[in-house]
């Protein structure tokens, strides 16, 4: 694994992943509706030779007072960003619970044409009733139901992408536009979806957009094992990362796939300084902007209980074990792990969660952060990272300008793009039509 | 009406609206998946000071042998095209039958931000069972059901666009991101849709994307009267245009709205030549590329019966009256009208239908075509046209370079854009939050 190419995504979110990032005097909060802002960030990540930019997504407005949540819709934003860049991959979250597979497969295939083969799909099942209630459902379907639906959704999307062969467009001006024998409709009539036609987009440059997945629950890990071509993981520290990495790679092998081709990329929050002290001061300054009330509300959504009256300087009250928790498992397991390892006060826990909600945070000089990154990647914890800049654009600039050059000098990160598609950046083969997922 | 500004959309479709356009030796058939092709066309239309480019849409692959149908998905294509242009409007068809209103309202609002206020939505109810069967429905809902659903869909979309006030984003770094009292969730629970939240996109530059509609049936005309801000019409000749125009303007007034603000824009196919003979030769050359078998199949979809064994040089057999026809009314009425006025053979009817499926065709010198355009617009037939270039890029180039200058010299067409948004091009006010549709 040590000799392998590291992989980095730039996970763009609001003014940065720290929930107080927008409160800084210099924050770009006025520009979250400006496509130029995202185009510039994608350009920075491309300058840093990242594999991709990465967007989360959600379907409710959240608490409009607390801070920015969503603004531009990711698929429309990625199209513009595709035209402002030429090499970097572009990954969007698309929910398998709120779309039809035909819509999702079609828009992603269209973007793969527009970007000349740089699109990835982070498939999620969504989680909040407030989102369900914007799309006609009284409440979210149960966990198992969502994952059953997601598996069928992915299966249908893959077959839609394969419904035109690569050589279907014959463009014979005296004869056929496409060879009808090479356009093969699905006849899918499953528990969740009816799709009885071929896609209305010819096969795209990558054949199929790259499939990212981020499940942490049993069902999520099994879905990743079956389908994911890259995995966005959550791990608070190296032991947690190693446990997840070993488990999910084992499941991929058990599903009959080659685990070496599936990059596991934990989320990573970084604060970089010329000295350790400077980096720590940057982190502390940002934490100090955090209104406690909002952080307690955020914690409440993570653990799905009201903690608005918790005493800030008291130890965190005991939480139910993961087996009794019905919300998203990954972050909850991280919170339990932070509590177990750090025995924090409520205030300390809020600080850890404020940026990235419990993902790993690395704070230090460029060399120290590069050391940690290499350690994770040589000791079975990661194949790269989904970088979650706490402060935009600063934290992304710093990582590209100061950490990437260290990793390039030391060897594990590319000094130029070897290929033009996201599949090529990730070392993934272009799938043949009809190949098993 | 004579003194009013004419309006033009450039309706982009494949290699042009003539169904044999792709068969020309010089056709751009190899480039229908290249976003640069559409960006260049949008640039041409912007050079011609058109109000907007316009995309149709559909959800099935059609007959892949016969010719190009869909390739890029319009909303993703328009985002890139928004970044390649700066003033021209960008209108996409979005089906009210296959989306949820939250998705549609969200993507269109996002595009309105990305384009700085240049997005329009052509709302359709879709028509083919093959489309329904890609989105989980066994067959298309009935006509009345589709229009009931569309009215509720539009109503919900308008209210979602109004769910953030224009001044909701206070961006107070020491306080609120958005003023919670200015973000007002819908609580809509109707026959077709549940939407129980606010949009997750702050209000967009135009307040609401511009609503286009194209219904020709009773229900379609009534929907247009209630909601449309511009209308894409089908009229084979001036009397048909005048009848439609008078009827729909009367209905708009009856719905309590000002008919002068709603531009009626019939589809228009043009062949331009230095002489009439040259223009006619261009048209005949294109018609000659038409494989008869494909044209008969196309006619069969228009009239919803098998006419593959019709005798080409015999008169068109009698067709059922419009009242007995259950498919899309506008084109069917046009076919009946062509038969009544022209008494054509089957071969002649195929020629008229091959470009634009029975929309008006004007063939002649730039001055002759400008005469016809002015006549339609000064005699109560149109407020402008949805130009359907039969051959791309040629027919659009010719119109922009040769017809537009004549209309500019004579007065009824702009010589520069007066505003920056599609609403401004169309002379439409920016709607206040909560204003009646």
Can you offer a commentary on this structure?
The structure is a homodimer of 437-residue chains. With 437 residues, the first copy, chain A, is of the alpha/beta class. The first copy, chain A, has a single domain (7-270, 360-425), classed as Alpha-Beta Barrel (TIM Barrel), CATH 3.20.20. Chain A contains 14 helices and eleven strands. Chain A has helices at 35-47, 74-84, 101-114, 129-132, 143-161, 218-227, 238-254, 276-288, 292-303, 329-342, 346-354, 366-378, 394-410, 422-425, and strands spanning 7-11, 52-55, 89-95, 119-124, 188-189, 194-195, 210-213, 230-233, 263-272, 360-364, 384-387. Chain A has an eight-stranded parallel beta barrel with strand order 1-2-3-4-7-8-9-11, surrounded by eight helices. In chain A, strands 5-6 form a two-stranded antiparallel ribbon. In chain A, α2 packs parallel to α3 (101-114), α5 runs parallel beside α6 and α9 (292-303) crosses α11. The longest helix of chain A is centred in the middle third of the chain and has 19 residues, at 143-161. The radius of gyration of chain A is 22 Å and the shape is globular. The model of chain A has no long low-confidence stretch (mean pLDDT 94).
């Amino acid at each position: 694994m040590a000799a392998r190419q590291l992989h980095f995504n730039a996970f763009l979110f609001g003014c940065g992943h720290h929930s107080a990032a927008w409160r800084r005097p210099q924050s770009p909060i006025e520009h979250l509706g400006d496509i130029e802002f995202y185009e510039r960030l994608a350009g920075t990540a491309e300058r840093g030779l990242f594999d991709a930019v990465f967007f989360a997504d959600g379907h409710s407005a959240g608490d409009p007072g607390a801070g920015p949540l969503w603004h531009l819709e990711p698929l429309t934003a990625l199209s513009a960003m595709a035209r402002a860049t030429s090499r970097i991959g572009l990954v969007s979250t698309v929910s398998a619970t709120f779309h039809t597979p035909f819509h999702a497969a079609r828009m992603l295939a269209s973007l793969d044409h527009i970007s000349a083969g740089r699109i990835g799909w982070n498939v999620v099942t969504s989680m909040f009733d407030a989102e369900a209630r914007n799309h006609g459902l009284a409440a979210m379907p149960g966990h198992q139901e969502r994952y059953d639906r997601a598996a069928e959704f992915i299966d249908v999307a893959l077959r839609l992408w394969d419904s035109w062969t690569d050589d279907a467009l014959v463009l014979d001006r005296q004869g056929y536009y496409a060879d009808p024998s090479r356009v093969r409709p699905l006849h899918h009539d499953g528990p969740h979806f009816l799709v009885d036609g071929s896609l209305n987009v010819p096969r795209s440059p990558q054949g199929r957009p790259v499939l990212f997945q981020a499940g942490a629950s049993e069902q999520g890990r099994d879905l990743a094992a079956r389908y994911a071509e890259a995995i966005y993981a959550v791990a608070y520290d190296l032991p947690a990362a190693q446990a997840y990495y070993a488990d999910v790679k084992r499941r991929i092998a058990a599903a009959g796939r080659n685990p070496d081709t599936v990059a596991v990329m934990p989320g990573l929050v970084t604060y970089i300084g010329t000295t350790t002290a400077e980096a720590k001061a940057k982190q502390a300054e940002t934490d100090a902007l955090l209104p406690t009330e909002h952080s307690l509300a955020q914690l409440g959504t993570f653990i799905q209980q009201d903690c608005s009256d918790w005493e800030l300087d008291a130890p965190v009250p005991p939480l139910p074990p993961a087996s009794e928790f019905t919300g998203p498992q990954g972050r909850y397991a991280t919170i339990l792990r932070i509590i177990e390892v750090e025995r924090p006060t409520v205030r300390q826990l809020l600080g850890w969660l404020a940026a990235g909600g419990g993902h790993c945070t690395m704070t230090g000089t460029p060399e120290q952060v590069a050391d940690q990154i290499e350690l994770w990647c040589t000791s079975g914890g990661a194949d790269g990272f989904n970088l979650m800049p706490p402060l935009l654009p600063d934290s992304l600039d710093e990582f590209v300008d100061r950490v990437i050059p260290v990793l390039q000098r030391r060897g594990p990160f590319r000094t130029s793009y070897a290929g033009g598609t996201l599949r090529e950046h990730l070392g993934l083969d272009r799938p043949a039509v009809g190949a098993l997922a």
